[in-house]
């Protein structure tokens, strides 16, 4: 169930690439990001309050939220600015290199994990056929990949140690506050905020649907290992390439279909191998995933102050 939820979240995030690319034709990057996260924050806080809850002001929760927000802000900032200078497909490919960076950062060097990651990267190359020469947008996307990889690593630990709901809410609050001065420095013209159809659709996709996808990630990372989360997310460029082809006219040739197949094989290799390795563990002590799932349900069900 968590892996299927992550797969659906990946579809949503794939849609954010062409949506954001189109919106940036009308609005500046940090202005768009501020509106996106403001919308997501308002919706999230509204749901939390309607459920009779409050975000915890616990020092550890705030500290973990702040650390995770640094990498979340850096990831979205470099990704969105980079999209102004490169294609949606190129951005998606380079960003998805976190499939290799996550196990590297965590020091997890199992043969199956690296074989799956390598196969996924090969599939990504065939899928989007990125240009060999890097431009400014590609370099920013590379920084984005490192930031998101670190964020995924953080969430694996933090969602199993603290109140996941509060951790989710505070990250949205903090990243929205961080985008405000960035937007002011950007000095956008008032006309840039005209609510056109393109901008409104982009905000719905990124501010509403992607915020929901982020909530799913927070829940799933208390159960699923970070390297498998990154591997599932490697399907994001596949979704992005298909949607960019359909909405933006970017090409998807036979190499794209081959790459998509390789990514799916990589994901199946990791998942099937992990399931086989975990059969014996089910008869023993509770797994980390089970403990994480119980922690999530407990944090979701217990009112806090």
What's the quick description here?
Helix content is 78%, strand content 0%. The protein is mainly alpha-helical and 305 residues long.
What does this 3D model show about the protein?
The protein is mostly helical. It has one domain. The protein is 78% helix and 0% strand. It contains 13 helices and no strands. It has helices at 2-23, 29-50, 59-82, 88-95, 98-106, 111-128, 136-158, 164-186, 197-220, 226-233, 236-248, 254-282, 288-301. Helix 1 packs antiparallel against helix 4, helix 2 (29-50) crosses helix 9 and helix 5 (98-106) crosses helix 7. It starts with a helix and ends with a helix.
User: Which word captures the global form?
Assistant: globular
Q: Largest beta sheet, briefly? A: none
Strand proportion, as a percent range, falls in under 5%
Helix content: over 70%
Structural class per helix/strand content?
Answer: mainly alpha
Based on CA atoms alone, the radius of gyration comes out at 19 Å
> How many strand units?
0
Mean pLDDT: 81
pLDDT under 50 segments (min length 5)? 278-293, 300-305
What is the chain-wise order of helices and strands? HHHHHHHHHHHHH
Number of helices: 13
Cα distance spanning the termini: 30 Å
